[in-house]
Amino acid sequence: MLFHFDLKEFQEKVTTQLRPWQRSFQFWVRAADIYTGYKVFQVRASLEKDVQKQEVMWEKQHEVAADKIYSMCSELGGFFLKVAQIVGKPDLAPAAWVKRLVTLCDQAPATPYDVIRAVLEKELGQSIDELFEYFDKDPLGSASIAQVHRARLKGDKNDVVVKVQHPGVQELMMTDIRNLQAFALYIQKTDVKFDLFSITKEMEKQISYEFDFVREAEAMARIRRFLCQNNRKSPVRVPRLIRDMVSRRVLVMEYIDGIPILKLGDEMAKRGIHPDGKLAAAAKQNILKNLSLAYGQMILKSGFFHADPHPGNILICKGSEVALLDYGQVKDLPDELRLGYAKLILAIADNDPLKASESYRELGIETLSKCENELKELLRLAETMFDTKLPPGVTMLQPFAEESSIKKVAVKAFPEELFSVLRTVHLLRGLSVGLGINFSCAEQWRPIAEEVLYVAGRLPAKDLKQVHRRGTSRRTFWR
């Protein structure tokens, strides 16, 4: 009996098995380089007594690190594109990081058309020519998990978007997140007194859901239905699902015409609209107000919400209408956490440190404080984590600076399920800073929080009437 040895097949198997190891090695080499670069620089900066010179030194260090982080995220792709979305926010990261990372929203390498075609035809059981009048071979965009193509169904007049998953992406992304978990565990033991590991565990759970497009389709339909039922007109547009064209790795939905929110300034300039004029300001306020209202309703009233409002998932349509795309990351909050968060929103809106402290306990957030005026710092920490408003005179939050609340109040335990709320609020804050509007989601969401607490029997009717009178007065949320 002759033994047949297929060298090409053997090489492919070895390559597939080695990829996670190679990827892990690449991550740790780069992460260690960035981390040690900052630790060494900290010592150098501490020797410089001139504050202005020290600031210039820090800016240069951030630029060096930004190039390294950009290279790591763009070259490794996959999960690290999501890391770039989280880290590269105008209110959180150094300006040099934001400038480099903000362009990585939808820049994953595209999978070749022949491979996409094979996945699509296998999943839907028919050929592309049988299903579509035309199918654009060049993708509209390629992200970490999937890429999208514009197409038109046979016998239809309207265009659709076809979302197709990159083959083999799930295993690599799970490798990435486990490496990040180990790094987070190290960082929280050495530098940042915050429960980062729980956050990465929640990310692992959420991202594992994103590989199932049937689940995403159900989430999209559910949120679309909820927003339509709770408003005369939905504050945001949610794509309509094309029924019978959904599988685990393929999802077909209506095409919504619009421009990415990051290109809003360019579009205004093209139309001759002054970026600082009244028309531009009104459009930006309308965009943020509607987007934030949709999130307030989803999180507080339903508990089931779109948990990924990064700029790549937001389109601006005619009349400054907002479209919210990509329902791979959704969260279903348990009622106890939903109501506990509603209570915390009232505490922030009322500037009530005692109520904030009670809300921490109710939510299961455990803190350890060694500072004076602990209640005041707990409220400041709540504002940093769960509100979009920046303090007077502050254009960018630096949560890990020496004077920040996170340095004064250690967060020993943070419920994993609250991370999606935390991340969503921080992304909304990033958008508000990017639009040049200092805005408090806690103040805007206050009437919604009151309503849900009243319905749940957690807010007396007498308080509801008083609060509603205040809530419906002519106060402005836009500063």
What is the secondary structure topology, with strand pairs?
Blueprint: H1 7-47, H2 51-76, H3 79-87, H4 95-101, H5 113-124, H6 128-131, E1 132-135, E2 141-142, E3 146-153, E4 159-165, H7 169-190, H8 196-209, H9 213-229, E5 236-237, E6 241-246, E7 250-254, E8 259-260, H10 264-270, H11 278-302, E9 304-306, E10 314-317, E11 321-324, E12 330-332, H12 335-350, H13 353-363, E13 366-369, H14 374-386, H15 405-408, E14 409-413, H16 419-435, H17 441-455, H18 461-471
Protein name: Protein kinase domain-containing protein
GO molecular function: ATP binding; protein kinase activity
Organism: Anisodus acutangulus
Describe the structure using short key phrases.
4-stranded mixed beta sheet, Prot_kinase_dom, 479 residues, globular, Protein kinase domain-containing protein, alpha+beta, disordered C terminus, 57% helix, 6-stranded antiparallel beta sheet
